[in-house]
Amino acid sequence: MTERRTRTRRTLFEREAELLAVDEALDRLTGSGPDTGGGLLALSGPAGLGKTTLLAEVRRRALARSCTLLAARGGEQEQSQPFHVARQLIQPQLAGRPEAELRAALGSWYAIVGPALGLCAPAQG
């Protein structure tokens, strides 16, 4: 019999201020007032501070509110790979779409953004 690993939700300690900021950002993002819309929430800090656990809770809360979630990881190894983080964020949302749909979504940036994200071959010329 194969043993299956399951993820357990970690308890966050002393993260009330951060979680309040997350909830406020999600309220603004998902609310119905004039100040609602897209947004960006960034976390940074030294290794071992608990960012990964905090981000897991941010993802859980965002998905519970039916938010579209884009996530990527970057580090020193990825610095030499152009558009690596952008590819992780955007490519899954656009991959597999027909060319006409990609052209409509990317507009005049299709010839630049499409190849940068690995969605099409660079134009020959």
What do these coordinates show?
This protein is mainly alpha-helical. The chain folds into two domains: 10-69, no CATH class; 75-125, no CATH class. The protein is 44% helix and 0% strand. It is built from five helices and no strands. α1 packs parallel to α2 (51-64). The longest helix has 15 residues, at 16-30. The radius of gyration is 19 Å and the shape is globular.
First-last Cα distance: 58 Å
How many helices does DSSP assign? 5
Q: List low-pLDDT spans.
A: none
| Arithmetic mean of pLDDT | 84
Helix content: 40-55%
How many distinct folded domains? 2
Major pleated sheet: none
Counting DSSP E segments of at least 2 residues, the number of strands comes to 0
Structural class: mainly alpha
Estimated radius of gyration: 19 Å
- SS strand fraction: under 5%
Overall geometric form: globular
